[in-house]
Amino acid sequence: MKTIHVRQLVAATAAAALLSALLPAAAQAAPDPQGIVAFDARTGAVRQIATLDGFLTAASSAAPEKVARDYLAAHRTVFGPGAAGLAGLRLRKDYLDIEGTHHLSFTQNVDGVEVVGSGVKVHIAQDGRIIAVDGSPQAGLPASIASFSAAGLPASVGDGQTRQVIYGTRLAWEVIDMDEGQLSVVDAADGTVLFGKSLTANDHAQTWENYPGAPAGGTQHTVRLPVTGPALTGNAAHVYSDVNDDDVAQESEEVRPSGRGSFDFPFVDFTAQVGAPCSAQRQCSWNPAVPNSWQVNRAQNATQLYYYLNTWHDHLNAAPIGFTRRAGNFEAVDGDAVVGQSMDGANTADGLPDADHDNNANMTTAPDGIAPRMQMYLFQRSASVLAGNSGDAADIVFHEYTHGLSERLVVDAAGNSALISAQARAMGEAWGDWYGLDYLVDKKFEQDDTVDGDVREGDYILAGRSVRSEPIDCPVASTEPVCAGTPAAGVGGYTYGDYGKIRSSGGPEIHADGEIWAQTLWDLRKTIGSWQARSLVTRAMELAPADPSYLDMRNAILLADRVVNHGHGQDRIWQVFAARGMGFHASTEGAADTAPTEDFTLPPTK
Questions:
Q1: How many CB atoms lie within 10 A of CB 558?
Q2: CA atoms of 97 and 82, how far apart (whole Å)
Q3: In this protein, which residues make up the domain named FTP (predicted)?
Q4: Between 394-409 and 530-543, two packed helices, what is the crossing angle to 10 degrees?
Q5: Nearest-angstrom CA–CA distance, 527 and 505
Q6: Burial class (CB in 10 A: 0-12, 13-18, 19+), 595
Q7: pLDDT tens across 64-75, in order?
């Protein structure tokens, strides 16, 4: 997917005409150098229209749906399906975010059957101005479902949740299999898999407000749990210890009150039994040399995980982030509270976890209305990894949960997650680190002092080191040893041109390359403040086109500043991104591009 600035297209007559038609009237006489038109390389269709220094339309008192439909109708030749097709767009959702912006998602349907991978989203400011349009309706759809040939539901789709859809020109079945963590689109005629996407974000994050023994937030204290039943169940989550990994909450795996309605389970420290790298400051929770030793802290850990899930639900729900019910958050009232599986697979090898159930954690997120699943594993002791539990570490739990935030906010018009290609998925990992560490530093459970490189993801599990190649607070050109980078990427904080060069073994990898985005957002946080950064980074997720690149998301942050801050932060935002190689002339072929071109220049002055 190619993102093109107006300045790159004005020489082409056809392109100039297209831009003149799409951008505001004020920009038609002299094309705006910050106008953006992005194209889908697969279909050739326009996938995003925006202008970074303004809006696409004037203010309007009309209803948001009318503003959107009028704009699409006025530009029907650009968006594809013609007048009839546009009139047939169904408003799936009009989501009003906490800043007053309407995010309207329109889907296409044939006889009530939704066309997946299609549709269009229109983002409208509180005063009725259109901020951006992304997605492109599919042209040439048949008038009736009878035009398609189809067979019954193929046996190959399994026992997942299914619905009939149209994919391209084919009638198909969309299947969501939570056991496999997979969404598939299967041809209705012959069972061919037309599209597949993993719903699970797996992380090798090696990391009770913080973790057991932490200098700040590392001591158990009495809190109030929002429990609505006789187990760890409430509006935000249901947690049980899925020690046999069958995804079913057996009675022996539920955690019941210890007495008098209290979930008071003191943590038992295994440091003396296990030894280094366990310590008083980073305490171990089990002994990998003794089968079933994890049982001692089973109830404690499930309770701790439940507390974290409720804490993070409330943090993301509140301003300025605003991951609310309307936004698609996770709540039992909507049938999709987080299913938290603590100590997942701890008993898969006769009282111990097997190799598939240790040193990891994951979050599987389906579309809105289907409960996500978080699986937290035990960590095995080694020279640098302590015998801990991922459910005891705030940064790991918050990281995993934040995958759910991005998977629910960066979506296509049908509401399906649009974090698909390399750069988009790398940002998913980066957001997981950034939101969690931002919170922990803001609450003073972790410190960000004047020395570079002291904010580390995975500090607990890795006994004082970071699970990433560098801490998140490594600025460009830092000379601190912990910010030494990798041989291919060089020393100091990373820039856009380091993409694909950070992993020590070489080649792109989403956790490694996500460090570029995470460090850039940490710079943004330092420049504009935590509160403002949380607001802009979240609003940008809602404004971004499907499968965004780093530059798409940079542009979305700039658009968000127009909405939230009346554009007052544009200069500072550009300075942050330019310093990290995502300047005005930076370029990429889209989210799948693992060798983007960096640039350190600011946009031209008017």
A1: 24
A2: 30
A3: 88-136
A4: 40
A5: 33
A6: exposed
A7: 999 999 999 888
In this structure, what CATH number is given to the domain that contains residue 389? 3.10.170.10
Residue 299: closest CA among 348, 241, 344: 241
Question: In residues, how long is the chain?
Answer: 606
Are 347 and 363 in contact by the 8 Å Cβ rule? The answer is no
Q: How many other C-beta atoms lie within 10 A of the C-beta of residue 73?
A: 12
- Per-residue confidence band for 110, with pLDDT thresholds at 50, 70 and 90: confident
Q: What are phi and psi of 210, to 5 degrees?
A: -130, -85
Question: How does DSSP classify residue 555?
Answer: H
Measured distance CA(178)–CA(449) in Å, rounded:
42
Task: State the Cα–Cα distance between residues 361 and 145, nearest whole angstrom.
Answer: 43
**427 in the same domain as 332:** no
Is the per-residue pLDDT at 316 higher than 80?
yes
Which residues constitute the domain of residue 162? 148-198
Our CA dihedral for 426, 432, 435, 438, rounded to 10 degrees, sits at -90
Check: CB of residue 479 under 8 Å from CB of residue 491.
yes
Say if residue 157 is in the same domain as residue 102.
no
Residue 141 lies in a domain: no
- The strands making up 193-198's β-sheet, listed across from edge to edge, are 109-110, 113-116, 161-167, 170-177, 182-187, 193-198
Residue 362's φ and ψ, nearest 5 degrees, are -155, 165
Could you tell me if residue 597 is inside a domain?
no
SS3 letters for 280-330? CCCCCCCCCCCCCHHHHHHHHHHHHHHHHHHHHHHHHHCCCCCCCCCCCCC
More confident residue, 381 or 92: 92
Query: Is 604 among the domain residues?
Result: no
Q: Which two tokens stand for residue 86?
A: 């546009």
**CA separation for the pair 242, 376 (Å, rounded):** 9
For 285-295, what is each residue's pLDDT tens digit? 999 999 999 99
CB 183 within 8 A of CB 197: yes
In the predicted structure, residue 124 carries a pLDDT above the cut 90: yes
* Number of helical (H) and strand (E) elements in the chain, helices listed first: 12, 18
DSSP sequence for 339-400: EEEETTTTTTTSSS--GGGBS-EEEE-PSTTS--EEEE-B----SS--S-BGGG-HHHHHHH
Secondary structure (H, E, C), 92-123: EEEEECCCCCEEEEEECEECCEEEECCCEEEE
Report field, pTM of the whole predicted structure over 0.85? yes
Tell me, what's the pLDDT at 158?
54
Going by pLDDT thresholds of 50, 70 and 90, the confidence category of residue 152 is: low
Count of the separate structural domains present in the chain = 4
Distance of CA 493 to the CA centre of its chain: 22
Torsion angle, alpha carbons of 37, 42, 44, 48, to 10? -20
